[in-house]
Amino acid sequence: MTELLKKSETKNLGKSETKNLAAEETKRLEMSEARAKKIKHSYKVKDAENSLLLKLKDGDVVIEMYPDEAPNHVARIKELVRQGFYNGLKFHRVIEGFMAQTGCPLGTGTGGSGKKLKAEFNRKPHLRGTVSMARAMDVDSADSQFFICFADCPWLNGQYTVWGEVTSGMEYVDNIKKGSGANGMVSSPDEIISMSVIADL
Asked: Is the pTM of this model over 0.85?
């Protein structure tokens, strides 16, 4: 899914350089190095290469990843993020007081990127803000789907690969549209606007 500049962003662009550009070309305009550096530092992360910026409808969410605990998962997530895989994907399964799940390109919970990951279960607990990998019954079936915990979920510990945590913007995660019924499937679900590795901003 392509992302065009918002109206509020285009007014800051110099008219002489952008006046005659077609709409689809505006997304190629580069930000100044100084501005990019300022934005990157504004997120105050320990390691920009292993931190993600998740843009939701209500605001920005920062996820710091655990490359020491789940190196293969973190590497794969970054690879998918850099491909733009997650941009526009839906939060298809969201259960109040439990978690919000996304990462399925079909929007149904049945799809993935086509590359399975061997489990990297670790000692990181499932707490409010924990980001962990969804999977099927097979422990080595994680692919691209992940979930963010709304609350502490100790029964998940050691059963799913924890690969990160929300360090800011959890209030925007709380606002993700909830599903109904036991499985939490969402009608007209919220989407990931974009995901980026903060080092790339």
From this structure: no
Q: Give, in order, the Cα–Cα distances in Å from 192 to each of 32, 37, 91, 135, 196.
A: 25, 24, 7, 20, 11
Could you tell me if 74 and 67 are in contact, meaning their C-beta atoms sit under 8 angstroms apart?
A: yes
Instruction: State how far the Cα of 130 lies from the Cα of 25, in Å rounded to an integer.
Output: 37
Give a three-class secondary structure readout of 101-134: EECCCCCCCCCCCCCCECCCCCCCCCCCCEEEEC
The CATH number for 108's domain is 2.40.100.10
**Per the domain annotation, does 1 fall within a domain?**
no
Q: What is the DSSP letter of 189?
A: -
Based on the structure, what is the number of domains in the chain?
Answer: 1
Which among 74, 47, 52 has a CA at the least distance from the CA of 62?
Answer: 52
Q: Residue 152's domain spans which residues?
A: 48-200
User: Could you read off the pLDDT of 73-109 as tens digits, one per residue?
Assistant: 999 999 999 999 999 999 999 999 999 999 999 999 9
Separation of alpha carbons 198 and 88, rounded Å: 18
- Would 41 be classed as within a structural domain? no
Q: Which residue has the tokens 């109206």?
A: 7
CA atoms in the 13 A half-sphere facing the CB of 128? 10
Nearest to 168 by CA among 46, 79, 70: 46
